[in-house]
Amino acid sequence: MRKTLLIIPLAAFALAGCAATTAERVSARVAAGPACPKAWLQGWQKLANRIHAPVYCPTYLPDPLTAQIGGRWNNIDSVDKDGSYLIGFVWQELGQEIHVNLRGYPGRTKVPTCRSIELVGGKKRVSTVPCFADSRGQKKIGELRVTMYTVNQDADQWHVLYAWKHAGSLYTVSQHVAPPLTFPKVVQSLNRITRSLVLVDPAQ
Questions:
Q1: How crowded is residue 107: how many other Cβ atoms within 10 Å of its Cβ?
Q2: 85-96 core/surface letters (b: 16 or more CB in 10 A; e: else)
Q3: For residue 148, with 0-12 CB atoms within 10 Å meaning exposed, 13-18 middle and 19 or more buried, which class applies?
Q4: Which residues pair with 78 in a beta bridge?
Q5: Phi and psi at residue 122, to the nearest 5°
Q6: Mean pLDDT, the chain, integer
Q7: 93-103 confidence digits (pLDDT tens)
Q8: What is the pLDDT of residue 124?
Q9: How confident is the model at residue 149 (pLDDT cuts 50, 70, 90)?
Q10: What is the secondary structure of 138-169 as a DSSP string?
Q11: Are the beta carbons of 56 and 174 closer than 8 angstroms?
């Protein structure tokens, strides 16, 4: 009986020690926050190195999209001479679309301008307009304070767009309002995408 009494407490102590170790590991992962998945990190690191500025890797995109630059769903991979970039991901099927764009404007925080073409009296009139307009105010999502825009141009047309500033640069993420998602669902999706963003610095 004495041996039994000694073994039980020791076993219980060992199990408690294992549980504590597991809890510590979970806590460490939570404290560290999300990380850009290895399968995606190479593309985002390459982009950061190319423009010599930080970029934001989304660790979550709505199903079936993944944020792998050069992957199956990556439809736009564009970098201008000034270092500004547009990375897009899209899924389309039978009149339905899930389309997410991420942009960055290194060294600039002002909303860029886009060309607008309209017909007036049968003639084309070209003017410049803000690329992101109709602000719906600001809100804090995670560590970012974003401004929501609902009237946007070019690749972000018909998208809800969030814009924020970091280290003297402007960044955006947008999603198309289209079936199978409604406006409220797109906003929920953008909130989740924004919370998942991880900053990737250029390699020294």
A1: 14
A2: bbbbbebeeeee
A3: middle
A4: 86
A5: 80, 0
A6: 87
A7: 999 999 999 99
A8: 80
A9: very high
A10: EEEETTEEEEEEEEE-GGGTTEEEEEEEETTE
A11: no
Residue type, 129: V
Condensed to tens digits (0 to 9), the pLDDT of residues 129-148 reads 999 999 999 999 999 999 99
Bridge partners of residue 91, in order along the sequence = 98
CB 17 within 8 A of CB 44: no
Domain ranges of the chain: 1-32, 34-200
- Residue 158: how many other CB atoms lie within 10 Å: 14
Instruction: Assess whether pLDDT exceeds 70 at residue 1.
Output: no
CA 133 distance to own-chain centroid:
20
pLDDT of residue 125: 81
Tokens of 166: 């970091």
Where does the chain have alpha helices with state H?
2-32, 38-51, 183-196
Q: Which amino acid is at 201?
A: D
**What is this structure's pTM?**
0.82
* pLDDT class of 30 with cuts at 50, 70, 90: very low
The predicted structure's pLDDT at residue 33: 65
Distances from the Cα of 120 to the Cα of 88, 92, 152, 177, angstroms: 33, 34, 21, 28
Per-residue DSSP letter, 95: T
- Provide CB contacts within 8 A for 173, sequence distance 6+: 56, 58, 100, 101, 102, 103, 161, 162, 190, 193, 194, 197
